[in-house]
Amino acid sequence: MDEVKEIDNNPSAETIWDNKAEQELQAEREAKELEALEAAAQREEEERQKAEQTASSIKEALKERAKEEDSTSPNLSLKKIIGGDFLTAELVRSQLWLIVIIVFFIIIYIANRYSCQQDLIEIDKLQTVLKDAKYRALTSSSQLTEKCRESKVLEMLANNKDSVLHIASQPPFIVDTHDE
Q1: Residue 108: inside a domain
Q2: Could you tell me what percent of the chain has a pLDDT over 70?
Q3: What are the pLDDT digits (tens) for 136-154?
Q4: Which residues of 155-180 are buried (b: 16+ CB within 10 A; e: fewer)?
Q5: What is the C-alpha separation between 148 and 142, in angstroms, rounded?
Q6: Confidence (pTM)
Q7: How many domains are there within the chain?
Q8: Taking a C-beta distance cutoff of 8 angstroms, is the pair 71, 89 a contact?
Q9: Which DSSP category does 175 fall into?
Q10: Do 131 and 137 touch, CB atoms closer than 8 A?
Q11: Rounded distance, CA 139 to CA 131, Å?
């Protein structure tokens, strides 16, 4: 018992005991942190491997798809046309400039047709204006012809009493002059 009292009364033994406990706790904490870091590193490694596998499988799928697209199959079905599968084929890629030229000519054709339609509309308007002008000219000409008739001129002269003009009683005759 005396020894127990001696250990209890000794402050350095108590401090050593506390330091050992703290060191053991610290070591346990560090071990747990180390395990957590190792687990995180392992998870990251697994995710990286999965990503690489996914990327490699995607590359392989794209290579297979490119091989399928490059191989021109003689069977051109309605399903391929509607699905647009024939547009990615080598045939279309090799004829790209022809397609561009055809589209260009189609645009030119549409523009030319539009221009022609506008010209036809303008021609129709001008023909309508010309018809109206012809009718007005015909109407004016007929009115002038009517007013220039001898009977109308005589009627106007008779109505206008202050005029000295009258109808000739003798027919017109030709006067011959001999210039010799």
Answers
A1: no
A2: 86
A3: 999 999 999 998 898 888 8
A4: eeeeeeeeeeeeeeeeeeeeeeeeee
A5: 10
A6: 0.39
A7: 1
A8: no
A9: P
A10: no
A11: 12
Give a yes or no: residue 164 inside a domain: no
How many residues comprise the chain? 180
Would you say residue 79 lies in a domain?
A: yes
Q: How do residues 68-98 score in pLDDT, each as one tens digit?
A: 655 555 677 888 778 877 777 677 778 889 9
Among 148, 149, 154, residue whose Cα is nearest residue 167:
154
Structural domain of residue 46, as residue ranges? 1-94
Beta-carbon contacts of residue 91 (< 8 Å; ≥ 6 apart): 72
- Pair of tokens at residue 116: 């022609």
Whether 72 is covered by a domain: the verdict is yes
4-13 own/partner pairs: CB under 8 Å, 24+ apart = none
**Residue 84, by phi and psi: left (phi above 0), alpha (psi -120 to 50) or beta?**
left
86 close to 76: Cβ distance less than 8 angstroms = yes
Q: How far is CA 126 from CA 16, 74, 133, 134, in A?
A: 118, 57, 10, 12
